Amino acid sequence: MKDLILKIDGMSCGHCVGQVTKVLTQLDGVQVKAVKVGEAFVAYDPGEITPADIARAVNEVGYEAEPAGRVA
Predict the structure, then answer these.
(1) What pTM did the predictor assign?
(2) CA atoms within 13 A on the CB side of 62
């Protein structure tokens, strides 16, 4: 598993945090570590999913997500 930080625009409240958490937890190969307004921290299995795929899933529910960096 590798760690990933996602920068997420368009989040403003606890409901947004819940929506992003929900979509991330439904992705195969992703473990949600923390979600807060504007950011998500996850661990992912690079053999199952890419950072771009993770960001795309968040974008599909109405937010603007992009990988902000990987944590060693």
Answers:
(1) 0.90
(2) 8
DSSP 8-class letter at 17: H
According to DSSP, residue 13 is labeled S
Distance CA 66, CA 5 (A): 9
- The pLDDT, as a whole number, for residue 36 is 96
| The residue to which tokens 């974008």 are assigned | 59
CATH class for domain 2-71?
alpha beta
* H or E element at residue 19: helix 14-25
* Per-residue confidence in pLDDT tens, the chain, 72 aa: 999 999 999 999 999 999 999 999 999 999 999 999 999 999 999 999 999 999 999 999 999 999 986 654
Between CA 10 and CA 49 the distance in angstroms is 24
Structure tokens that stand for 60 in this block: 């599909």
